[in-house]
Design a protein that fits this description.
Elements: H1 16-31, E1 33-34, H2 44-50, E2 61-62, E3 65-66, H3 72-89, E4 94-95, H4 101-112, E5 118-122, H5 138-142, E6 144-148, H6 159-169, E7 173-177, H7 187-197, E8 200-204, H8 209-213, E9 226-230, E10 241-245, H9 250-261, H10 267-281, H11 283-305, E11 309-310, E12 319-323, H12 331-340, E13 343-344, E14 346-348, E15 362-366, H13 368-372, H14 377-392, H15 397-413
Parallel strand pairs: 1-13, 5-6, 5-7, 7-8, 8-9
Antiparallel strand pairs: 2-3, 4-10, 9-10, 11-12, 12-15, 14-15
Bound molecules: D-serine.
Length: 420
């Protein structure tokens, strides 16, 4: 035990074991190439704020209306986060309390749906998300799920087909949003469809929130009834979620978040969200988000030039999918081999995949993290070469060691968290 300097109750344990684990993870993040489309390097200011004493405070409720005393400062934190969120996304109401994207989605479901109501969402296999209707998720268990697939030829959303399905299913809620779809989602077309069948429209922008904030991807705000997002992917903030809606839904959404689906808000994370919103309003964030897409397109083109089949033929955003079927490789084999060389990405199902989600026919590649590091087109060429070489030599340990050295050198040229 270490006593604090006044030698009384605030005792702390020097957890050297955990410190060592954190050091190891820092070293890993600094020395690998992170191509997981949903990961990023958040700023040190965000990290500092997340690690602040705000974690000590209980603040169930909302600014000016809490269940606990002592919330004057906490109210300022949440008010600032809400103000900045609204400014960033040009909205008139937001709730910044959801602990995650799934929590944000769940709160929206609770706000307008009853058990057994119908939801129309994107098929998980085609790019949708678990929380949009997977049978083990509460959506799949408590709601009646109808799904739309991408077109078999273009591998893009076929809006006519979505409309047809909406007319048949008559859902109460339509979800526009995905976790592995590389194309622009046309929220206006979804709005028209929702209006035609009298459904609510929820846009889950978890993946593209930063691209929207940076003005390089169309917004769903003002079009969808509800927009849900995460703050830690392209938005580059702390791990968490948020909901944006018109203020006519404020009462409904607020009570669905608390007490509907959550207890005490994570005030340290809400404060860090406020920091990330401020960072995303800086002009440099526009450049950052533009660069994410440029890098994604460049890396995608490189892989295409190396004769890899790209799902839908290309990308308009921060990610793309490679179908490895004609390489006689599964996503599992490829992602494991790449990881052993220090290139970190995930196996991913592709549209109409015949393999199960633990094996998969594809891999997903995203550029938010490497772009944060400052890498550009030239580095994308190097990364494409390394991926190709690894996949062609995955059974030769000396080849994997060679790539691993190159990965370390490249990551070392674009250091993150230098001060840590
Ligand atoms: N796990 C996230 C992703 O990687 O897309 C979605 O929740």
């Amino acid at each position: 035990m270490i006593k604090d300097n006044r030698n009384h109750t605030l005792a702390a344990v020097a957890d050297t074991e955990m410190q060592q684990i954190l050091k190891n993870e820092l070293e890993r993040q600094k020395s690998q190439i992170i191509l997981i489309a949903s990961e990023n390097f958040t700023s040190q200011e965000v990290i500092r704020t997340m690690g602040s004493i705000l974690t000590n405070k209980y603040a169930e409720g909302y600014p000016g209306d809490r269940y606990y005393e002592g919330c004057r400062v906490i109210d300022e934190v949440e008010e600032l986060a809400i103000k900045r969120c609204n400014e960033l996304f040009n909205s008139n109401f937001s709730n910044v309390q959801p602990h995650s994207g799934v929590q944000a989605n769940t709160a929206v479901f609770l706000s307008v749906l009853n058990c057994g109501d119908k939801i129309l969402s994107m098929n998980l296999r085609d790019g949708g998300h678990l929380s949009h209707g997977h049978k083990q998720n509460l959506t799949g268990r408590y709601f009646d799920i109808f799904t739309y697939s991408v077109d078999t030829e273009t591998e893009m959303i076929d809006y006519e087909n979505v409309k047809k399905l909406a007319k048949i299913a008559k859902p109460k809620l339509i979800i526009a949003g995905a976790s592995s779809y590389s194309r622009i989602i046309d929220y206006s077309k979804f709005r028209e469809i929702a209006d035609e069948v009298g459904a609510f429209l929820m846009a889950d922008i978890a993946h593209v929130a930063g691209l929207i904030a940076g003005g390089v991807y169309p917004t769903s705000v003002g079009i969808a009834d509800f927009t849900t997002a995460t703050t830690h992917k392209t938005l580059r903030g702390p791990r968490g979620g948020l909901i944006i809606a018109d203020k006519k839904y404020s009462g409904l959404i607020n009570k669905s978040v608390f007490p509907g689906t959550q207890g005490g808000p994570l005030m340290h994370v809400i404060a860090a969200k406020a920091v990330c919103f401020l960072e995303a309003m800086d002009p440099s964030f526009k450049t950052y988000s533009k660069n994410i897409i440029e890098n994604s397109k460049a890396l995608c083109q490189d892989m295409k030039d190396k004769s890899y089949r790209i799902v839908s033929g290309g990308t308009d955003n921060h990610l793309f999918l490679i179908d490895l079927t004609d390489k006689n490789l599964t996503g599992y084999e490829a992602s494991e081999a790449l990881a052993s060389a220090g290139i970190i990405l995930n196996k991913n199902v592709i549209p109409y995949d015949q393999l199960n989600p633990n094996i998969t026919s594809g891999i997903r590649i995203g550029t938010p993290a490497v772009t944060t590091q400052g890498m550009g087109i030239e580095e994308m060429h190097l990364i494409a070469d390394m991926i190709d070489f690894t996949l062609k030599n995955m059974h030769h340990s000396s080849a994997l060691k060679d790539v691993s050295k190159k990965v370390k050198a490249l990551a070392g040229d674009f250091p993150v968290y230098s001060g840590m």
